[in-house]
Design goal:
By secondary structure, this protein is α/β, with parallel strands linked by helices. It has 2 domains: about 5-260, Spore Coat Polysaccharide Biosynthesis Protein SpsA, Chain A (Alpha-Beta Complex), CATH 3.90.550; about 265-295, no CATH class. It has 12 helices and 13 strands. The strands form 3 sheets. The chain has a 9-stranded mixed sheet with strand order 5-4-1-6-11-8-12-10-9. Helix 3 (about 75-80) runs antiparallel to helix 4 (about 85-95). The radius of gyration is 20 Å and the shape is globular.
């Protein structure tokens, strides 16, 4: 019987080079998506799924992440004096979300290495990994479904999503077979960023994982792969190839709304989509967007 998942690792050590110069002094995870930094959406997702023990793997110059989730007494007192309860509540919310711990990655050796750094904190129990670049719309279930599947199957669970075959080279691609459950597949193999003609499917790994602790031993032995980094996909491939190690790998196929904030164009789209759906912004934004688009040639 699998132990319940209570902890989540959020790798946040990337340099954010695609957003330079904005990320020269500010972590990419702190870039605002409407009026919250991207990283807060990710932590809220974990908390909404019942995971309140959060370990962030950070790099240098990432102090803004810790500051964001800390108390800012002077600001809170200022808002309280002004009677601005709405903004005060929003500021306080980020400080009270979860028990958040921070650990330096050290040398940036890739996602697999970042996950491995969390070994002492996680211990001998299954855990979730949420990537800060991928935002999952709070109205669509994913992580809770993955946690249910992990408990049910006592296996590694990854999130998959159909993408345009022309874009599969940007992702890890999964070779799968159906199970007796709709929306859940058995993962037979994984390929990191394959060429279109080499991809086993157009099912891409998106940034949500529920891993068993056996992955740590495999990551210890995983050699640098694509890009000279220790790839988490390579370790998952080992687990997928042998069910005896830790029960194999299964994929939950997500068909909801996902926002990729790691790409500049998709980041802009995410802001527009989320703002359009907001009750406080949508009614004014949508007519303006319609008028703006009508003027485009």
């Amino acid at each position: 019987m699998s132990k319940p998942v209570t902890k989540v690792v959020i790798p946040a050590a990337g340099l954010g080079t695609r957003f330079l110069p904005a990320t020269k002094a500010m972590p990419k995870e702190m870039l605002p998506v409407v009026d919250k930094p991207a990283i807060q959406y990710v932590v809220e997702e974990a908390v909404n799924a019942g995971l309140k023990d959060v370990l962030m793997i950070i790099g240098r110059n990432k102090n803004a992440l810790a500051n964001h989730f800390d108390r800012v007494t002077e600001l809170e007192q200022n808002l309280e004096k002004k009677g601005d309860q709405d903004r005060l509540d929003r500021v306080m919310a980020s400080s009270d979300l979860a028990d958040i711990y921070f650990l330096r990655q050290g040398d940036p050796h890739g996602l697999g290495h970042a996950v491995l750094r969390g070994r002492k904190h996680i211990g001998d129990e299954p855990f979730a990994v949420l990537l800060g670049d991928d935002l999952i719309d709070a109205r669509d279930e994913l992580l809770s479904v993955m946690l249910h599947q992990q408990e049910k199957r006592d296996a590694t669970i990854i999130a998959l999503m159909e993408v345009d075959p022309d874009s599969i080279h940007l992702y890890g691609a999964a070779d799968v077979e159906p199970t007796d459950e709709d929306g859940v597949v058995k993962v037979k193999g994984l390929v990191e960023k394959p060429a279109k003609e080499d991809a086993p499917s157009n099912l891409a790994i998106i940034g949500r994982y529920v891993l068993k602790p056996e992955v740590f031993d495999i990551l210890e032995e995983t050699k640098p792969g694509k890009g000279g980094e220790i790839q988490l996909t390579d370790a998952l491939q080992v687990l997928a190839a042998d069910d005896e190690i830790a029960g194999g790998v299964y994929g939950v196929v997500f068909k909801g709304r996902r926002y990729d904030t790691g790409d500049r164009l998709d980041y802009i789209k995410a802001i527009v989509q989320l703002a359009s759906d907001r009750e406080d912004l949508g009614p004014d934004l949508k007519p303006w967007l319609t008028e703006f688009v009508s003027k485009l040639s």
